[in-house]
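Input record (Table S2, row 304):
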Amino acid sequence: MFNSLSDRLTATFKNLRGKGRLSEADVDATVREIRRALLDADVAVPVVRDFAARIRERALGAEVSGALNPSQQIVKIVNEELQGILGGETRRLRLAKNPPTVIMLAGLQGAGKTTLAGKLGKWLKAQGHSPLLVAADLQRPNAVTQLQVVGQRAGVAVFAPHPGIQSEFEAPTGNPVAVARDGVAEARAKLHDVVIVDTAGRLGVDAEMMQQAADIRAAVNPDEVLFVIDAMIGQDAVNTAKAFEEGVDFTGVVLSKLDGDARGGAALSVASVTGRPVMFASTGEGLDDFELFHPDRMASRILD
Ligand code: GDP
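Output record (guanosine-5'-diphosphate complex):
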């Protein structure tokens, strides 16, 4: 991901090397190139516009003295702005003072929520926590079974509405809000210190799904609501993210499928339009393909 954006930006900055001073025309030409590179990487148009305007303003106002030459100065500005968009500092999970910490996952169907539940569970377990996965996705046939399988592979306990294997073609019955609430009660009773609530998604945003997610949020009062988004989604990312921001007021973003050939724009767009930090990156189907997201490292990687 970001490879072509990275190449384009590097080439743009190369053109500035050796220049003692940047004219306004130099800055404008550079900003134009940055804008094109971001648009080609699928970053949303309003995000690109704001970003370009900030770079231009800062580049024109940059102090000429200092240890950096003009091209280094622009690289530094772009780096800082990219890092800012991606959430600034690395944002770690907020753990509740009184356990259990409740983490709710939200996002469209296929975004990678169920897989993430397993990854997050395994990762937390390795840090000495005792997580419980809660299967509150009762919409998709097989979702409960899938979470049970993921939990088993991760070595993490799963709370499901009713045990056993469902029919592959039939959605489990039950009330997802009650399941989520019961899951948290179960965690409290069995001394799990983190609860990860998997919720239902649809292929597109719809009112009923969003209401269900909002009801679950209200019922379990989560410490974190993680919005999981497929990095391949491209320009649709902004509308989807805004709908979830309004619907469930998420606290952090998880970018999934970063191992694919996504151009990376979704990542920048979602974080920028919602102002929520990217917290984790999912980089494959395996349970270990998962990492804490570091905005500074990602920004540096883009500009490498
Ligand atoms: P959910 O509907 O949001 O629960 O999504 P799932 O967790 O079921 O994931 C949908 C599909 O995407 C599954 O086939 C997963 O194996 C796959 N998947 C999830 N995360 C990743 C990832 O980071 N990279 C890749 N390549 N595939 C992923």
